[in-house]
Protein: HNH endonuclease
Organism: Pseudoxanthomonas sacheonensis
Amino acid sequence: MPLTLLTRGGKSGTCNICGNVGPLTEDHTPPKGCVRPAAMELQHVTHRLAAEKAIKTKANDGVKYRTLCARCNNALLGGRYDPALIDFVNRVSALLASDLALPTTMPVAAKPALIVRAVWGHLAAVGVDRYLKGPRTEEFRDFFLDETLSVPPCMNFYYWVYPYRRQALIRDAGSLDISNGGQAMYWLMKFYPLAFTVWMPQNGWALNHRDLASYRTSKPDDIVDVMVDLDPVPHELTLEAPTTTQAIMFGQDSIVANSRPPRGRILRV
């Protein structure tokens, strides 16, 4: 049975980030400065992986969630944190588009303390009426609202190049690695040219990707050289499809998004 994909909360309700009750606004996830809003078709990730004929939800102007108050969405995400994420994304995009023979790893000037908040904030917007995030709800909220706080020690912000068209937005996934006993909960956001995961391991399980949390001591406006691995490129379905040693469980708010085909006849020449 297809899962219902909810993206529009009520016009008033509880903000997914700060928990305040009041008018809600729409958040583009990923932000508009990173991807151009376009008509999309949404599916739950498990239906996509199983190639089932599931009902697709249409999104005419990109993926948007009406789940955030105006302060969290506009003043903090759009006004403060997103510019750092957009700049980082554009710099990586320029590297992938370059005709030069570049080293496999390149430094990219960035503000990691702001980027991690942008990533977390947009993923926190996923899902209707999803303010509660377990026992660390207030700790995560305070980290977003107060940019002087360090990344909570229970969180990693892994990132890698993602030169693929399909987008993914996954909240509250769980993974178990039977080879090492690793357990983790995670959120995941993928769009060209980068993928990000908010990784919350239960027993110190680390992934083999670069981690923005390694810059946790940097101040909000510190510009540092963030290392980006251009090669090898991880598989498109990393942290979406299980591996021979890794099992994955997905919650309801786990979607993939593809551009909708144009209506009418398509001529190929």
Notes: Helices lie at 45-50, 70-97, 112-124, 137-145. The chain has one domain: 12-259. The CA atoms of residues 18 and 129 lie 12 Å apart. The two ends are 40 Å apart (CA to CA).
